[in-house]
Amino acid sequence: MKLGSPIVLTATVNLNSNSAPLLFDSAALQAPNREAVLVSEIRFFGRYPDGFVLGAGALRNLGPEARFNLRLGRYMITQDYVPMWVFAPSKDAIAENFYGETGEGVISSFRWKLRRPMFIPPGAAFSASALRAVSGDANNAFDGQVTPISITLVGRVVTGDFPNTTSVPWVSAYAPNTVSLLATNGDFMSQQGHLENELSNAVDILRINGRICYGASGQHQDYTTLPAALRYSHKCSLQHGNHHIVPQDTEFNVAFDAASRSIDMNGLMLQSGDRVLFKMRTPAAIAGDTARVAPHLALEAVRREAV
């Protein structure tokens, strides 16, 4: 391929948790002269409006709530809607939690660096839609707020020697709503359609990214903000067929380390119809805690397709 100048393409929609999924303007995600583009990075950005003030010490992360469905022409990139904070390891996040008491709003920004760049042919359509998932918290003052959500493609214009095939990502997620830990343990298990290859061809799994959504009074925070009594108490496992990738009763905080929140799969092949099974056991809530918890995982894979 002959590469030309860098290019950055962005589209924005305004979402609230009560709206149906909204489509981004596909024309805004095309090069101005409909040139071919080699995409190396996809960015996701969301913020609460200026003037919406959080209380002292509150943390709010749009990563679990803003969810994206992506396609390249006839090829699916995501299986259903994927939370933006599990497209990539946490170390690639630009900003997760900004809270303020002076009206500057709340910002969450994530960067998905494609291990294998994706070629978009001249005039081809990259399409995206987004929704805001209801948090599951009973008294969530944030759910009704309108939030600008953006997607950005970063890459290079391709000026010649176009390829006949390209790498196309495949992302399948497991992202249930948060559940209360009060009085009872919460157990989670991915089901059919989660962390699965629903394509007709095999895919190479590059990574599995995992986060824990922790909610109290409507907050969505990263796992590192959990109370110490809960932080190392979540036991999980990952299984592919009869093979345990992560053995039973492994601490989530160890399997998905705090530096990356990701497990490198080194191109493990996942055949059509196969899936990875995730299980997690959570402890009972400690006295006086109002914690709500849910695991969010995404299987990040890639395959070759004709263009």
Number of strands: 20
Overall tally of domains = 1
Uncertain residue ranges: none
**Percent of sequence in beta strands:** over 45%
* SSE string: EEEEEEEEEEEEEEEHEEHEEE
Biggest β-sheet: count, sense, barrel? 6 strands, mixed
Tally of individual helices: 2
Shape: globular
Helix/strand structural class: mainly beta
Taking all Cα atoms into account, the compactness measure Rg is 19 Å
Explain the overall architecture:
By secondary structure, the protein is mostly beta strands. It has one domain (2-306). It has two helices and 20 strands. Strands 6, 12, 13, 15, 18 and 20 form a six-stranded mixed sheet that branches. The longest helix is centred in the last third of the chain and has 4 residues, at 228-231.
Please outline what is shown here.
With 307 residues, the protein is an all-beta fold. The protein is 3% helix and 50% strand.
